[in-house]
Amino acid sequence: MDFLNAFSHLDWAQVIHLTWQHITLVGIAVSLAILVGVPLGILMTRFPSLAGPLQASATVLLTIPSIALFGLLLPVYSKFGQGLGPMPAITAVFLYSLLPIMRNTYLALTNVEPGIREAARGIGMTFGQRLRMVELPIAVPVILAGVRTAVVMNIGVMTIAATIGAGGLGVLILAAISRSDMSMLIVGAVLVSVLAIIADLILQMLQRSLTPKGLLK
């Protein structure tokens, strides 16, 4: 009952504002990770010797606790007057998103059937043409699976960014903790979970719509 009472007394204008902030922060960070991670995945297929070091570096970044990573970024951005706010949060989520996107791109491209690659090479396609017209379209479902992982994971991570003034739904959770209001804390956690589920469903539909018909089961 306390949960339902807290839910019914929410300031929905504030909730919508914080939800939009949350979506924007995660969206910017993951979009940047796609712009960097996909080319890095392609680079690893072109130069396999880079695969180990790049994936190891991204894995190390992923093992750093989010609150510690925010702390490491604060003095860097403080030099530019951006120590508190969205910039450290976006950077941290960008770094966390790199591994699943980069790894999935690499795995998807390396697992393209050799016969398909040879057929494209046999008709005179260059590396760029094969990549653009054959390999990437086949790899899109696996790449988007990495994007889904990054988005769902980092919707949760971004709640911690409220501690450095970045905004988002973490503001509700911090306010609940400061008031020892367990009902409001549960409401905040539920809202974050619902947002992650909705984002995953939308990306799942996008993944299916972009999958070549020949690969659909």
Automatic annotation (TrEMBL):
Instruction: Say if the entry is tagged with keyword Zinc-finger.
Output: no
Recorded GO CC terms: plasma membrane
Q: Which GO terms describe its biological process?
A: glycine betaine transport; transmembrane transport
- What residue stretches are annotated with the ABC transmembrane type-1 domain? 19-203
What is its membrane topology?
Multi-pass membrane protein
Print the keywords alphabetically. Answer: Membrane, Transmembrane, Transmembrane helix, Transport
Coiled coil segments of this chain: none
| Listed transmembrane segments | 20-44, 56-77, 89-112, 133-151, 157-177, 184-206
Q: What does the UniProt entry say about where the protein is found? A: Cell membrane
Q: Which family does it belong to?
A: Belongs to the binding-protein-dependent transport system permease family.
Q: What's the protein name? A: ABC transporter permease
